[in-house]
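The authors assume throughout that readers already know how a fold can be written as discrete tokens. A single example would do more here than another paragraph of explanation. An entry of this sort, consisting of the sequence and the corresponding backbone structure tokens, reads as follows:
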Amino acid sequence: MWKMASNIKDDMRAVGARLNLVTWSSLINAYANSGLVDGAIEILEEMIRDGCQPTAPCFNIILTALVKSCQYDRAFRLFNSWIEFGIKVSLSLEQKGSLPDNFTFCEEHPGTNGGTILVVPFRPTVTTYNILMMACGTNDERAKSVMNEMKRNGLCPDRISWSILMDIYGTSKNRNGAIQVSTKALS
């Protein structure tokens, strides 16, 4: 699937078509669903170099692929790196000049060969935190900590968040915790 998606991207480029957010997201998804998470990250960086602003779902696709492949620690490391440092992408002067005016980045540093390095911010959503909670397995304390971080960052857990947390408490055989979460979710 990822090869076909990559060929379509190359064909579009060959005829001078500019890829949009949907196309880039589909490419990231094709790589991620094929287990090629590093390739998906490279596509994300290529997307930025091409001047297309990534949205939270682009990042969430990659995190979901890591969770589905049981790479829980890597999902957390990547998330924490994105939160702390953003996404660093090297651009040539030509690539930097072709970025749209509304392209958001938080820092710019001199790069090699006269280029520049942009730091693109990562803004997690409730869905992002839900993905991370699923990465907690049966560690109910870690899942609760992820939910608390979500709240500290001004996001409100949704029904899916509460359901994931209840499931984790149940799976970890913490009946009282599951009941407490159920009570909080209903209040």
Observations:
- Residues 125-187 form one domain.
